[in-house]
Amino acid sequence: MQPSRDIARLVEIMAALRQPETGCPWDVEQNFDSIVPYTIEETYEVVDAIERRDAPDLREELGDLLLQVVYYAQMASEIGLFTFDDVVEGITAKMIRRHPHVFGDVEPRSARSAKGQWERIKAEEKRERREARERMRSAADAPAEAGEWMPATDAGGSGLLDAVPGALPALMLSRKIQEKAATVGFDWTEPGPILAKLREETGEFESAAATDDRDAQEAELGDILFTVVNLARRHEIDPDAALRRTVAKFRARFAAMEARAAADGRSLADMDLEDQESLWQQAKGAENRSAE
Fold it and tell me: In this predicted model, what pLDDT tens digit does every residue of 46-61 receive, in sequence order?
């Protein structure tokens, strides 16, 4: 089998890898749940390549991420749920439907009309998903392996926050939950009260930290983080991006510390905290001079 620019070749390769008799033993034994960690890892590797502006890496990582989509679709096709073609058709239909001003006869949307049109489109998509579940539940020839994918009722609850996927990374989950609550007015309107709340939560954590109650400490720290996300949202800052920026800065300074220590024939592990702090300040100063 030869490489190809045609996506169909990738689908063929995955089908071959999953063949019980002739495929790859590792690929054959995988399932939806076991692949999830790899999907998350590949997603972050795409983000990392973008942040490093590494085009060759980005091309490769996008391929790895695309492979995850083909992998799930192949496993789904094996138990009669859907195929890769169904996935492609579904997303193309969604993009066309959500952009009637580009692909249809609708005039370019004004800010005034956008909200109503968007709600109508979402309602249509929700109805179609409900009908798809009904078809799955009534399929008489569905394989036994598909049983766990046959929900008795529609997914999710009816509450406002039920639409937010609980498996999102914590910072993103916090932000989306807060944004949903804000749609009904449950939100701070300015940063001042949020800063006051942050000071309050910090004080409560200090009190918990003075005890041996680990559960209370975790709860109070969670309150601090949730409030910080609210503060970031109020200032229109992505908390995940802000934290990643700080981590990148720390990594650069730490690497500079290691380089300075090595230049002196020393190791950070052999230095006391005072000497390490001195190297940290030197690295920070060099960074500031470079920025100027």
Answer: 999 998 899 999 999 9
Q: How far apart are CA 192 and CA 189, in angstroms?
A: 9
One CATH from 1.10.150.320, 1.10.287.1080, 2.102.10.10, 3.40.640.10 for 170-237? 1.10.287.1080
Tens of pLDDT along 138-191? 665 566 667 677 665 555 567 889 888 888 889 999 999 999 999 999 999 899
Domain spans of the chain, in order of start: 7-162, 170-237, 241-291
Task: Give the separation between CA 144 and CA 203, rounded to whole angstroms.
Answer: 55
Measured distance CA(232)–CA(179) in Å, rounded: 12
